[in-house]
Structure formats: C-alpha cells, structure tokens
Specification:
Length: 214
Amino acid sequence: MTRPSLRTITASASLGLAALAGVAIVASGEPQAMRKPPTVAAERLIAEGRQIFRFDTFGDEQLWTSVLRMHEVIATVSPETALAKGLKVDVDALPADLVALLAAGRVDLSDPAVTVELIRLNAVVGVRGTVSSTAQLTSVGITCALCHSTVDNSFAPGIGKRLDGWANTDLDVGATVPLSRRRSTTRPRPSSAPGARASTILATMRSTAPASSR
C-alpha cells in the first residue's frame, strides 16, 4: 500500500479544520467575525453597574421618608448648609444656564428651594428624591454614592465632576441624620434586651463626623 504523501496529509487536515469551522459557524448562527467583541458586553455591564451605584436606592425611601421623615428636614436645608456638611453636587447634571448663573454668583445658595431643585435634577450625589409639580419634596432615598463617591471640586468646593468609588471623607452623617423629626419617637429596648439606647446611638452617629467638624 502506498503511503500518503505529506502534501496529502496536510491537505486533508486543512479540509477537516475547514469543515469543523463550518460546523461551528452554523451552530453559533453567525460567523465569528460578526459577533460583538467581549468589550462591548463588558462596557454595557459597567454602565449598568454605574447607574445602580449612582441612582438605585433599593427602596430605602421606606426608612428615610416613611420613618425618619428626612424629606421634611432636607426641604429646609440650604445648599450652603448641605455643602458644609459634606454633600456633593454633580456639575454635569446641571443644565448649562444654571451653571452660568452659579458661575456669575446669581444663585442664592442660602435658599432651601435651591436644594430641592438640585435634588429634582439628580445633581446631589447619592440623594434621590421625588419633587411634586408644586416644587415640594415628597420623598427621599439615598444610594451607594452618598458615602462612596465625591467630586473633583473643579467648579467650586463641593461642586464638580463625580469621582465614583472615592470615599466622601467630608460627609458629616452624624450631624445630619439626628436632625430627623422622628428620632424622639425611638422607643428604648427593655433593659433585658440587647441593643443601645437612642441617646447612645445618636452619640455614636455624631462621632462619625469628620475630625475637622467636631
């Protein structure tokens, strides 16, 4: 029997590989070259994750609104005070005309109504709120970004482009949450039950303030 030549073996192997490639193309429904590169899917997932990180409250309005009534407190807080307590404003979320007014010093940052408008624009980092047609803040929740994002202060202190994943070391939660009008309704646990008293909890929260504001 005559042995096949190297050329014959190579040709047969090439035909076999071509056949396997054809089967793979048919099985996948489209040629490999037509598939979207993995980076497209990865970028989509990153974008979705960014949206969740920045804007998803996971339903915590039931605490901040229904229980603590923080929307009533926030509606009385001016941007000046909010910025002083470490809250941040995303300049990219502001319309161009408002940015121009801010730059010209023509926005009253002592007016709590401005805070409500900033929340309506989704410009307060980590704070999501619902504002009625009469400009009343009716609910509020917080997102991961409240504590885990800051801004680059490129426009003004506390106002700039978002820096996701950077800890907000200026945030004074201990001075903000105790403003809740419902904190006095906290019932102490029975002495036999585990847990701290309300006064102890509030003192602990105040101790979380940045060292510069204590």
